[in-house]
Amino acid sequence: MEYQRYLLPFDTRHMPVEETDVLVLGAGVAGLSASIEAARAGARVLVVNKAALDESNTKWAQGGVAIEQEFDEAAIDEHVGDTLVAGDGLCDEEAV
């Protein structure tokens, strides 16, 4: 049985080549922070992002850590509900 190596056929002899010291995948806060530090250290840095530079998980993160301070069942259930609503269907309910 023979498998295709690539989803689309292409010839690497005709593709542009980019050389870099550091390749950063993602242009969120973590990726850009790493890029800045690498550049300050003298590295040639290339940042690759899957969408526009202003689209990252960092943009959508609400930040912080939410906890329930009242440890009764009703308060915890309300906290879980609030977390799931804020997650807009993206939360792993078991983890929440």
Question: Which helices and strands appear, and what pairs or packs with what?
Answer:
Layout: E1 22-25, H1 29-40, E2 45-48, H2 57-60, H3 73-87
Parallel strand pairs: 1-2
Distance between the termini: 44 Å
How many H/I helices? Answer: 3
Structural class assignment:
alpha+beta
Number of strands: 2
SSE succession: EHEHH
Based on CA atoms alone, the radius of gyration comes out at 21 Å
Within the largest sheet, what's the order of strands?
1-2
Describe the structure.
- The protein has 96 residues and is α+β, with helices and mostly antiparallel strands.
- Helices cover 32% and strands 8% of the residues.
- It contains 3 helices and 2 strands.
- The protein has a two-stranded parallel sheet with strand order 1-2.
- Helix 1 links the parallel strand 1 and strand 2.
- It is elongated, with a radius of gyration of 21 Å.
- It starts with 21 loop residues before the first strand and ends in a 9-residue tail after the last helix.
Features:
3 helices; elongated; 96 residues; two-stranded parallel ribbon; 2 strands
Brief overview, please?
The protein has 96 residues and is of the alpha+beta class. Helix content is 32%, strand content 8%.
